[in-house]
Write a structure and sequence with these properties.
2 domains; 4 helices; eleven-stranded mixed β-sheet; about 30% strand; UDP N-Acetylglucosamine Acyltransferase, domain 1; alpha/beta; Udp-n-acetylmuramoylalanyl-d-glutamate--2,6- Diaminopimelate Ligase, Chain: A, domain 1; ten-stranded parallel β-sheet
């Protein structure tokens, strides 16, 4: 594409020479027919050495390159450029004869179904959705339009998927939640008869598990992005446009508001409420409700600034302990002298 065409598509100002762009790359590796970007100021020195044909930059750095697309958010706009050049995975089109499709399934003619997919009774699949090999689509599952279901995904019965949803390889939606009732004779399984509902424009990473509700729904709100290896338990409600990073675990019946961000390896106890706009630092343990627009960190979680101050003190504890022991010894000596 011509650089001017990209600028028009992104609604950005082009400064410098127009040229043909054939791909995208990093500042260090880009060639003269590739487009790069600068989002982190620490990489500014690379602008002098890059061979990139053009760079997406903020206005303050535009003069340092021969051709620039001026952006107030270079990372965001570069992501939109990459979409133009990205090649989708998979080239198979149509419905494979090697797939099993139940006679009652309703599948739009534009859907692609790879070999060795199982599609069960009463399934509904919308236009232009792609389902890769090894996926299991259980009874009465509904999948919207423009979805991508990557290999070996399991969508168990009654799971509902909205439009423009991406589910990466190995993910399981609708498996039983961890529900058991304790009695004198042992543990009795609490049947999990609810469902999982995933709204529009959600992306779910590889090997993530989202459990069906015991009763009712486990819901993932529209626009939410979930990383790899996340566990979301039964009846959890995740608000719109939230971000859940890898290895997070959310216990049953917890409610996340809109635009909540959970860092990697965060653990959240059950039956809690995290308000809109909360942010939880990586490896934190949350055991109580968090008010809206609050940043927390640590285990147990605390206000983020308190957590940072505590983190600075923690390495000094052995030294402080020694000082306290010495002070205690001096206090005892003084008490002995006073008693004499």
């Amino acid at each position: 594409m011509l650089l001017s065409e990209i600028a028009k598509y992104l609604n950005l100002e082009l400064k410098g020479e127009d040229k043909e762009i054939r791909g995208v790359n990093t500042l260090e590796a880009a060639k003269k027919d590739e487009l790069s970007f600068l989002a982190n100021p620490k990489y500014v020195p690379h602008l002098k050495t890059t061979k990139a044909g053009a760079v997406v930059v903020s206005s303050e750095f535009a003069s340092q390159v021969s051709s620039a697309l001026i952006s107030s958010n270079p990372y965001f706009d570069f992501a939109r450029v990459v979409q133009l050049f990205a090649r989708p995975q998979g080239t198979f089109r149509g419905i494979s004869e090697l797939a099993f499709i139940h006679s009652t399934a309703q599948i739009d003619p534009t859907v692609t179904v790879y070999p060795f997919v199982y599609i069960g009774e009463g399934v509904k699949i919308g236009a232009n959705t792609v389902i890769f090999s090894g996926s299991y689509i259980g009874e009465r599952v509904e999948i919207g339009e423009q979805c991508t279901i990557y290999p070996n995904v399991s969508l168990l019965c009654d799971t509902k998927i909205g439009n423009n949803v991406i589910i990466h390889a190995g993910t399981v939606l609708g498996s039983d939640g961890f529900g058991f009732a304790q009695g004198q004779s042992g543990l009795e399984k609490f049947p999990q008869i609810g469902k999982v509902v995933v709204e529009d424009n959600v992306e779910i990473g590889a090997n993530t598990t989202i459990d069906r509700a015991a009763i009712g729904e486990t819901k993932i709100g529209a626009g939410t992005k979930i990383d790899n290896l996340v566990q979301i338990a039964h009846n959890v409600q995740v608000g719109e446009n939230s971000i859940i990073v890898a290895q997070v675990g959310i216990s049953g019946s917890t409610v996340l508001g809109k635009q909540v961000i959970l860092g990697g390896q965060v653990g959240i106890a059950g039956h809690l409420h995290l308000g809109d706009g909360c942010r939880v630092a990586a490896q934190s343990g949350v055991g109580k409700d968090i008010p809206p627009q609050t940043d927390v960190g640590g285990t147990p979680s605390m206000p983020h600034k308190t957590f940072l101050r505590s983190s600075l003190i923690l390495p000094k504890l052995p030294e402080l302990y020694k000082k306290i022991k010495k002070l205690e010894e001096k206090v005892k000596e003084l008490e002995t002298k006073v008693q004499e």
